[in-house]
Design goal:
The chain is an alpha+beta fold. Helices cover 15% and strands 33% of the residues. The protein has a single domain, classed as Alpha-Beta Complex (Fumarylacetoacetate hydrolase, domain 2), CATH 3.90.850.10. 43% of the residues are buried. The structure holds oxaloacetate ion and magnesium ion. Its EC number is 3.7.1.5, 4.1.1.112, 5.3.2.2.
C-alpha cells in the first residue's frame, strides 16, 4: 500500500483518470439521457489535470464549456477483479475534481455516434484539489458537493444520490481496467451543470472539508 505521502502529488504521475458518467439520476435527466443500468465510463488524458493557480482553458472548437463538480476517488494500490467487499481497501484518499465538458462537442459526438474524447479529455479539463487522505472523510457517500460561478451557487448535490456507489464502481472498473496506485475515479456529477464564459471564476468544494477556485480563460493562440 502506498503511503498517503506518496500520493500527495499523484496528479503529476500521468496515471489514469477514469470517469463515470450519468451516476446521478437528476443529472442524467437534465441532459435528457436515460438513467443507466450499468456505469457509463470514459477516460481523460493525464494532461487534463490542472491545479489551483492555473486557468482552465476553453477548447478552441467549443462555445459551450460546462462545469461538472465531482468526487474523485484516489487509488492506493494495484488491483484487478476487485471484490466489492474489499474495494475500499484500494482507496487511499479523495480529491475534488471538475469534469470540464465541451457540451456542444459532446452533443455532436453523441449524434454522430463518436467517442467523447474531444468533449472530455482536452488539456485542463480536470481541475483537481489537493489530495484528501482517506481518514479525513468518514463516509464518502455522505458528502455535499457544491460549485459556484462568480459567487452564485450552480451545483449542490449529495454523494448519497450516486446510482452506483464507490465499492461497486471500483469492482466494476477493475474487471475492465487494472487499477494502479495514483489512478483516480471521477464518480459523476450531480445536477446543475451549466456553461462558463471567459473570465468566470469557479469555486467548488466538498462540505467545508476542502474548496478550490479556478478562472476560465481562452488559450493564447
Ligand atoms: O457528460 C455527462 O453528462 C456525463 C458525465 O460526465 C457525468 O454525468 O458526470
Ligand atoms: Mg462528469
Amino acid at each position: 500500500m502506498a503511503s498517503s505521502k506518496n500520493l500527495i502529488r499523484f496528479w503529476e504521475w500521468g496515471k489514469k483518470i477514469i470517469c463515470v458518467g450519468r451516476n446521478y439520476a437528476e443529472h442524467a435527466k437534465e441532459l435528457k439521457n436515460a438513467v443507466p443500468t450499468e456505469p457509463v465510463l470514459f477516460l481523460k488524458s493525464p494532461s487534463a489535470y490542472v491545479k489551483e493557480g492555473f486557468p482552465v482553458l476553453m477548447p478552441y472548437y467549443s462555445s459551450d464549456l460546462h462545469h461538472e463538480v465531482e468526487l474523485g476517488v484516489v487509488i492506493g494500490k494495484r488491483g484487478k477483479n476487485i471484490d466489492q467487499t474489499r474495494a475500499m481497501e484500494y482507496v487511499e484518499g479523495y480529491a475534488l475534481c471538475l469534469d470540464m465538458t465541451a457540451r456542444d462537442t459532446q452533443d455532436q459526438c453523441k449524434k454522430k455516434g463518436l467517442p467523447w474524447t474531444l468533449a472530455k479529455a482536452f488539456d485542463t479539463s480536470c481541475p483537481i484539489s489537493d489530495f484528501i487522505p482517506k481518514d479525513k472523510i468518514q463516509d464518502p457517500h455522505n458528502l455535499t458537493l457544491w460549485l459556484k460561478v462568480n459567487g452564485i451557487l450552480r451545483q449542490e448535490g449529495k454523494t448519497s444520490s450516486m446510482i452506483f456507489p464507490i465499492p461497486f464502481l471500483i469492482s466494476y472498473i477493475s474487471k475492465i481496467i487494472t487499477l494502479e496506485e495514483g489512478d483516480i475515479i471521477l464518480t459523476g456529477t450531480p445536477e446543475g451543470v451549466a456553461s462558463v464564459r471567459e473570465h468566470d471564476e469557479m469555486e467548488a468544494g466538498i462540505d467545508n472539508i476542502i474548496s478550490m477556485k479556478f478562472k476560465v480563460q481562452k488559450p493564447a493562440l
